Structures are given as C-alpha cells and as structure tokens.
C-alpha cells in the first residue's frame, strides 16, 4: 500500500493524514511518536501532521507502525483525510454547548468549519466507496447523539430535539424511531429498566 503524501510548496515538508485524532492529547501523542522516529515535526493539527522530508527518505512502514501502536492510522489519500476531518467537525458541531443549528443551517456551518463550500463538501464526502451521503451521515450522528443525551442527561425529549436543531418534536421522534426502532421515550424507559435490573 503506497502513500501519496501532499508536498508543501517548498517541497521540504510532507503532510501525513492521520485518523483517530480527536483531541489535544492526540496531537501531543502523534508529535511524540513522530519525533521518537527521529523525524523533524513542523506542525501537528487534528487529522494531520507535517514532517520534514528531505529527498523522500521517510520510512512509511515505521511511521505506520508507530502511529498504529498509539491507536492512530495513516489515511492513504486526501479524500479519506477530508472525510475524517468532516466526521470530526460533525461531532464537534453537535456537541458545542447550545448548538441548535437546524438541518438546513448545519451543512453551511460544517462547510465553514472545514474550509470548503457546501457543494465541494458533499462531493468530497461522496468520493469514497461505501460512504453514505453527507446528509444521511449528519442525521445518523444527530440521532446517535440524541441516544447519548437520553442515556446521560435528564433533559426532556423536547429539549433534546431543540438542542439538536429539530423544529418539531414529531419530526425528531419519527426520525429517532426509524433510527433506533423505538420512540425516544421508550428508549429512555428501556435504559431505566436495564439499569434498575443491573
């Protein structure tokens, strides 16, 4: 499997696209792992690290192994890196306190977050085989977050629906039912019953 890294304009740096970097701790760990290989690390951000590559001397097998040991993986293309970055941005947007972005507002906010226009964002997400559409992915992540809120908070269902950007409780409940095969209230009751039995 060959990696086709992107070169910086001066061809001195090589961008490594890295999966599973979701927080500042991941940035520190990736930097430490790469520096432990003797690489000069120019920059590390969520989803990417830039290292000095003089004359194409990077040992990709060692880099892959070091990252895998720390729970990360190299992404083999910019398209995969973009999809990973979009997924991270979706999670961050959903979890921002007070986020009440409606569905139609979410994609433009996401596009701003990742620095692309909405059309390019949809196209980039659809490039990789086996991926659902961007809208389907966002909806499934909203509903997975709703499950998390139903499990971990005492917010009423209407408040959860509003927090996730749903304009109507009926619309939220219908989508949740299709996603989880039960209503939000039944889901919460199942959790309460399961926890009382444990």
UniProtKB/TrEMBL annotation:
Stretches of the chain forming a coiled coil according to its record: none
Q: Name one Pfam family in it.
A: HTH_18
Key words of the record: DNA-binding, Plasmid, Transcription, Transcription regulation
Q: Which SUPFAM superfamilies match?
A: Homeodomain-like
The residues covered by the HTH araC/xylS-type domain are: 84-190
What the entry lists under InterPro entries is as follows: Homeodomain-like_sf, HTH_AraC, HTH_AraC-typ_CS
Q: Which GO terms describe its molecular function?
A: DNA-binding transcription factor activity; sequence-specific DNA binding
| Alphabetical list of PANTHER family matching this protein | ARAC-FAMILY TRANSCRIPTIONAL REGULATOR (PTHR43280), HTH-TYPE TRANSCRIPTIONAL REGULATOR EXSA (PTHR43280:SF2)
The protein here is known as Helix-turn-helix transcriptional regulator
């Amino acid at each position: 499997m060959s990696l086709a890294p992107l070169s910086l304009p001066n061809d001195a740096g090589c961008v490594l696209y890295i999966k599973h970097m979701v927080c500042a701790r991941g940035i520190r760990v990736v930097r430490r792992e790469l520096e432990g290989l003797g690489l000069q690390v120019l920059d590390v951000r969520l989803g990417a690290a830039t290292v000095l590559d003089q004359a194409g001397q990077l040992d990709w097998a060692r880099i892959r192994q070091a990252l895998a040991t720390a729970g990360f993986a190299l992404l083999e293309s910019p398209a995969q890196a973009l999809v990973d970055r979009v997924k991270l941005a979706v999670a961050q947007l959903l979890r921002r306190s007070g986020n009440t972005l409606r569905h139609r507002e979410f994609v433009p906010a996401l596009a701003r977050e990742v620095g692309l226009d909405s059309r390019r964002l949809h196209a980039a997400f659809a490039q990789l085989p086996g991926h659902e559409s961007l809208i389907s992915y966002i909806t499934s992540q909203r509903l997975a977050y709703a499950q998390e809120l139903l499990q971990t908070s005492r917010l009423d269902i209407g408040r959860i629906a509003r927090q996730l950007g749903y304009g109507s409780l009926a619309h939220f409940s219908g989508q949740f039912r299709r996603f989880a095969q039960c209503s939000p209230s039944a889901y919460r009751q199942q959790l309460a019953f399961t926890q009382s039995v444990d």
